[in-house]
Specification:
Blueprint (H helix, E strand, L loop, with lengths): L3 H6 L1 E2 L4 E4 L24 E12 L2 E12 L8 E6 L8 H12 L2 E5 L3 H8 L18 H7 L6 H18 L3 H13 L9 E7 L1 H12 L3 E2 L9 E5 L14 E7 H11 L17 E6 L12 H7 L8 E2 L4 H17 L33 H4 L3 E4 L13 E4 L2 H8 L2 H18 L4 H10 L7
Parallel strand pairs: 1-8, 5-6, 5-7, 7-9, 9-10, 10-11
Antiparallel strand pairs: 2-3, 3-4, 4-6, 12-14, 13-14
Pfam families: Abhydrolase_10
Protein name: Alpha/beta hydrolase domain-containing protein
Organism: Penicillium vulpinum
């Protein structure tokens, strides 16, 4: 129960108005990430667009919401995953969790709360359709793009990025209140479904946005005075100081091996006891670091991604088959259970780091400890959390597969490999980091495909 002093500090956001924005032959929703949108009819889902109008930071705004939910409202399970659109447009969590979300009857909502990106990436893409969209005036996305450092020198990276973020936050002041207003709109039934629980999530830059909300916007409340979100899931951010508990909400923070490596660049080398983002579990907080996880999953690529990445020279490696999405399915499922039944998810677990800040590795070069999977416990190659060639794809994971002679030296027979891999899958299920439905896919599409 909040104290009177805390109640006095609370700020109730203004209730927004939401209007359906229909599509016509000449006016369609602008969607930057079509990843697996073809699966919507397979699962009986629809995609609807809305404009939300209200007041935030004492100024009016109008922004776009993109909802994906069961076509039959009676099949809606009550949970909505809310994801702000990335500063460069589009979203990331949808492409990772859409299978789990749709087979479970949940809904997903993109909210274009970051002003420069929303104006340049959405409104300017179709000025007539989105003519009502507006925010507090700020710099354009193009102006920001022209001033972002190329990050050539590692020692300049963190300082440049910090300056960029400070400028970006100042340009999108209305975002926190817009996110809370979105939660109200979902709970009030203005979009055809009535949310019982709302989880706020994001990956990369939007994870930074969620982290900032947790630290700086705990005073914001729904119009009725209640907390806006049952849970927060900032995923694969660039780190920062450890997150505090958030009264009335659960927090699951997820980092991949890529981010654990990147944090050294941002904050300098650290031993395990000095990792700035790490903290102990609590009744409302978990931190998971996933060994082998890169910044972007390549197991399930869109056709656009396949075409774009087909020309990249991997220098003998191949795109990683690491199933990031399956780990996320389990963690989002755990968050749903945590916020409905109170059953806590698995204990937090982190990757082993030596006193020099380097990730400790096994004889094959794969990271030790952290969230374990069949990919790291029964490897068929060395998992690499980045792309060999520098450039725009450097944050995408690859792997160097073992040759047949290596597979024979490690496992002796295919049957022995499959036995060990099956046992690893069972351990991951028991530990709470893999759902049985996804385990069957791993067995069929990965384990049973191995031969040597």
């Amino acid at each position: 129960m909040a104290t009177e002093e805390e109640l006095d500090m609370h700020v109730r956001v203004t209730a927004p108005s939401v209007a359906f924005l229909p599509e016509t032959e000449t006016s369609k929703a602008v969607v930057h990430d079509l990843h697996h949108s073809d699966l919507l009819p397979v699962y009986g889902y629809v995609s609807h667009e809305y404009l939300m109008t209200g007041v935030a930071v004492a100024h009016s705004y109008c922004t776009r919401l993109l909802l994906r939910c069961p076509a039959d409202p009676n099949k809606f399970a009550g949970l909505v995953i809310v994801e702000p659109s990335h500063l460069w447009g589009g979203t990331t969590m949808w492409r990772i969790i859409e299978r789990w979300l749709m087979r479970s009857g949940h809904a997903w909502l993109e909210v274009d709360s970051q002003a420069p990106a929303a104006i340049d990436q959405i409104k300017n893409a179709d000025p007539e359709r989105y003519k009502e969209m507006h925010f507090i005036p700020c710099q354009t996305l193009q102006e920001f793009s022209n001033k972002i450092s190329a990050f050539v020198k590692e020692e300049e990276l963190w300082n440049d990025y910090r300056i960029f973020k400070e400028r970006w936050w100042a340009a999108t002041l209305q975002s926190p209140e817009i996110l809370v207003a979105t939660s109200h709109a979902l709970r009030s039934g203005q979009m055809g479904i009535k949310a019982e629980r709302v989880i706020l999530t994001g990956l990369c830059q939007t994870a930074d946005l969620i982290r900032k909300f947790i630290v700086e916007s705990a005073h914001l409340r729904l119009p009725d005075g209640s907390a806006p979100f049952e849970g927060f899931m900032p995923c694969q951010s660039e780190g920062g100081n450890s997150l505090p508990d958030f009264r009335g909400a659960k927090i699951i923070e997820v980092l991949g091996e890529f981010e654990v490596n990147a944090i050294k660049i941002f904050y300098g080398k650290f031993g395990a006891e000095r990792a700035p983002h790490r903290r102990a579990d609590s009744r409302s907080f978990r931190l998971y670091e996933v060994s082998g996880m890169s910044h972007r999953e390549t197991r399930y690529l869109s056709m656009t991604d396949k075409k774009r990445l087909s020309t990249v020279d991997l220098e003998g490696a191949q795109w990683s088959t690491f199933a990031s999405s399956f780990v996320y399915h389990a963690l989002f499922d755990a968050m749903n259970k945590w916020t409905t039944t109170g059953v806590a998810p698995p204990r937090g677990t982190t990757i082993d780091i030596d006193k020099f800040g380097e990730i400790e590795r096994d004889e094959y070069g794969n990271a030790l400890a952290g969230v374990r999977t069949v990919h790291t416990d029964v490897p068929t190659g060395k998992i690499i959390d980045f792309t060999p060639q520098p450039g725009p794809n450097w944050h995408i994971g690859t792997e160097m597969p073992f040759k047949d002679v290596k597979m024979w030296a490690v496992y002796k027979t295919v049957a022995n490999y499959r036995r060990q891999a099956g046992e690893a899958v069972d351990r991951q299920i028991e530990a709470g980091f893999l759902l049985p439905e996804d385990a069957e896919v791993l067995r069929r599409d990965t384990i049973e495909q191995v031969s040597f």
